[in-house]
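On clarity, I found the account of how folds are encoded harder to follow than it need be. Since the whole study asks how a given chain folds, the encoding of that fold should be made plain. For illustration, here is how one protein appears when written out as sequence plus structure tokens:
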Amino acid sequence: MTTSADDPAHVHWAQEDIPASALWRSANGAPAPSSVVPVDDTITADAAYRLASQGVAMLWSGDFQNARQILTALEHRTRPRPDKSQRTTGELFYRYRQNRSHRARILGLLLVPMQAGNIIGLRRAPDVVAATVDAYGSISEASVVSLHEVLGTIGAHQWRTKGIPVAALNASIYPHYGTFFPVRSEYVDLVATAPLAAPNLAFDIGTGTGVLAAVLATRGVPRVIATDIEPRAVASARETMAQLGLSKRVEVQLGDLFPEGRADLIVCNPPWIPATAHSLLDAAVYDPGSRMLKGFLAGVRDHLQPGGEVWLVLSDFAELVGLRSRDDLLKVIDAAGLRVIGVLDAPAVHARATDASDSLHAVRANEVTSLWRLCAS
């Protein structure tokens, strides 16, 4: 059965020739599958993979743990095969993105039912209430969700419960689902150590969890205004400030790029890869057409106090895979009426930089994150 154009929020299928439907939910913005068939413990991994490869979603009605085993089998079948061909870094990145997109599509097609109260109505299903409330809110009617996404909410909830240590803050933060977790320390450490000329007001644009705004406040900036376009990020950042006792000094606003007024220091760590985001979570890393980077640089001078400074924190990953050149970046900076007064670099220290099994290992090992200090030219 298909999802009708005038009913995009529901999925439809036939159970023993009886039409059925339920609300479609996706925390990552995935569209409702257009074709759904019921399956149970009798389906084989090969049959499941054939259906998924044809774009057919499978609504599971058997044992939850068996569904996880099928998902694991699908993950195995979508792993990239060893490629001994001599390829450019650009070609390797293209293949990497292709595989990620393929995996996401295949793995997202194994579905489970969720009842009112955020309960998965399957045998041996775990308690996912707390994790899925973070992602979907409270569910009050029969719904269908991707099993792969549900498992992701469980992992994110574990991170949120455990907390992520941030050395620059000498504390842990507890991000909301859907915000970019600051598990990479390079960009945080750069903001924590860059020369700071006692600004009265700082803006943190695209704050995410609020970690950079918090670092600025703990370094003595008396007032910080942090913005983000995503409501989840705003809620997460506000919670971060309350937890760290910084709510009176850091104001978090919902908005695209700049708040009103001018600041002495404006900081931005935009998504660093100019490519299409395939999910809401991807949007923290992928910036199609460098929209945020170019928008930030084009507008920042109008929000900068005379004599003020701009800190642009950016990885050179896009340069290493041929998606943007250093000259391209310098031209955008110059066109914005800005000039470079200094660059601080930090080599990659995150776990993926040492993973030799990663097809992009050579790129990640050579990646450098830079804090570009800019001022009006």
Residues 10-158 form one domain. The two ends are 61 Å apart (CA to CA).
